[in-house]
Amino acid sequence: MNSEHRLTLMAVHAHPDDETIGTGGTMARAVAEGRRVVLVTGTRGELGEIVVPEMDTPANHRRLGEIRAAELEAAMTELGVTEWENLGYRDSGMMGDEGNRDPRNYWQANLDEAIGRLVWFVRRVQPDVMTTYNDFGGYGHPDHIRTHLVGLGAFLRAGDPEAYPEQLADGLEPWAPAKLYEQAISRAQRDSMNERMAELGRRSFWLPPEDATPEQLAEHAAFMDRATVSDSAITTRVDIADYLDQKWAAIRRHVTQISLESPFMLLGLEGWREAWSTESYILRESRVPTSIPETDLFAGLA
Fold first, then answer.
1. CB 119 within 8 Å of CB 174
2. Count of helices and strands (H, E) across the chain
3. pTM for the complete prediction?
4. Whether 284 contacts 134, CB under 8 Å
5. Fold of the CATH domain 8-186+230-286
């Protein structure tokens, strides 16, 4: 590492808005603490819903990728992030949807090629820390699962001079990031949100349908086991209380995707201060010694 290298976080995500929901507070905090923050998004989110009725038109769906790119830029301004990139794949939609069969999408992309694209960014940016999703993608979305595979693959291969040697011929050098984290939501956070939603007279999106059959209840329980984790599994909790205003403002910039009536927003900013004042992670790979539990993704780095 050269003397001019600034400790760098690379947050790897699937669609515009994922970055703010999952890691927005961590990104804002890192910027405030003088770290370099680079966002890499796999797609432009072309197949997302449009939650604003007056904007939900065929014309806007045709140009949704462009709209969401502008929303992302506005959100990054709120977080103080000045560098963001895109791997260039099309949104895959949910499993079984027509868009999921589009040969241009992220899910259908050649995995080795997709990893290579991210390796190129890793070697160019030289991040010390990377974040991605778990192997379930947080909630089973194909693009999130692919983000996990691509993020893990790039973390493991970017430092190997035999991987993608054509990149090295272009002047890049191998670079092995020090730490890889997966985002996590604890079951305690989920239960706290369920309780707060009940106090508001609203049913939490974490709960199964009230008329769920035994089979549906079993499926929901299995889903929850993969979408959330026990508190003991979390290795790193980043305090983002001082950056919640920025995170809230950034989420509000993703206008087409998240309204104040969205389940995630119903608690309001003050509710967030009670339930979401930390962002949680699981340290999956580390090439430097560190002590668990951590309160900083850069723990163990000079």
1. no
2. 10, 7
3. 0.94
4. no
5. Rossmann fold (3.40.50)
